[in-house]
Specification:
This protein has two helices and four strands. By secondary structure, the chain is an alpha+beta fold. The protein has a two-stranded antiparallel sheet. Strands 3-4 form a two-stranded antiparallel sheet.
Length: about 80
């Protein structure tokens, strides 16, 4: 499948539109996260790989997260303390 499009200004970035038929053919629904990489002569768009629970566990350093205590200040209304 071949399509031609134009690079457009989108805010402070640049962007292109991908025809719906192409998105349907490669399984890119609206909202799909993709990865952009440059290679010789162009830009490649591939599906972003989601992180599995195994990936997340491999990244864990074994330390339990401790939320810092927050001082919310003095009561300002009818809060029950």
């Amino acid at each position: 499948m071949l399509a031609e499009t134009t690079v457009r200004r989108i805010g402070n970035s640049q962007g292109i539109t991908i025809p719906k038929e192409m998105c349907d053919a490669v399984g890119f629904p609206v909202g799909k996260r993709v990865v952009l990489t440059t290679d010789e002569g162009g830009v490649r768009i591939t599906s972003a790989k989601g992180r599995t629970i195994r990936d997340r566990m491999d990244e864990w350093d074994g330390v339990r997260y401790q939320s810092p205590e927050v001082d919310w200040g003095q009561p300002a209304g009818n809060e029950l303390w």
